[in-house]
Amino acid sequence: MKCPFCHNDDTQVLDTRVSEEGDAIRRRRRCNKCEKRFTTYERIELAMPYIVKKNGSRCDYDSTKLRASLMLALRKRPVSAPAIDSAIEHIEERLLASGEREILSVKIGELVMHELKKLDKIAYIRFASVYKSFEDVAEFRDMIEEFSPASFPRKKTPKRS
Predict the structure, then answer these.
(1) With the CA atoms of 48, 54, 56 and 58 taken in that order, what torsion angle do they form, in degrees rounded to the nearest 10?
(2) 131 and 108 share a domain?
(3) pLDDT, greater one: 151 or 23
């Protein structure tokens, strides 16, 4: 490890500890040339798979695109920011756990639909209508019928006197 002060290659580890979060190793070091001390951290670096689009092109995974898709489907819906963050974490965990170097964009769409179905049924139908390219009302009806009538409570209209 190079010293950040004098750029000497010869440094000595004085102390090693696991970070409070448990996701990194903290090392206290001393430069053998200038004798200054500094701290380094070792963390696991996990690489997200490349995304293979429908046309065959490949691109880097971008969490901002995933968040934007979820936010668009959830627009004006009563879903908290922590719930959205949790859904994104679940999707990313599944992508990492797959161990694949490349993943089809269709698979990501399915993961998004799965998370939206748990979060908000209206957002799920919104996303599915675009994702599955609905062409007529019958496809909407079929999607809505996946849910029991109890899933969509009707507003009670006040009785007229």
Answers:
(1) -30
(2) yes
(3) 23
The answer to whether residue 2 is domain-embedded is no
Residue 38 lies in a domain: yes
Q: How far is CA 156 from CA 77, 115, 148, 159, in A?
A: 20, 29, 18, 9
| Contacting residues for 144 by C-beta, under 8 A, at least 6 apart | 125, 152
Q: Are residues 143 and 82 in the same domain?
A: yes
pTM above 0.85, yes or no: no
Tell the burial category of 71 from Cβ atoms under 10 Å away from its Cβ (0-12, 13-18, 19+). Answer: middle
Give the structural domain span for 110: 50-147
* Contact present, 111 and 97 (Cβ < 8 Å): no
- Claim to verify: residue 134 and residue 82 sit in the same structural domain: yes
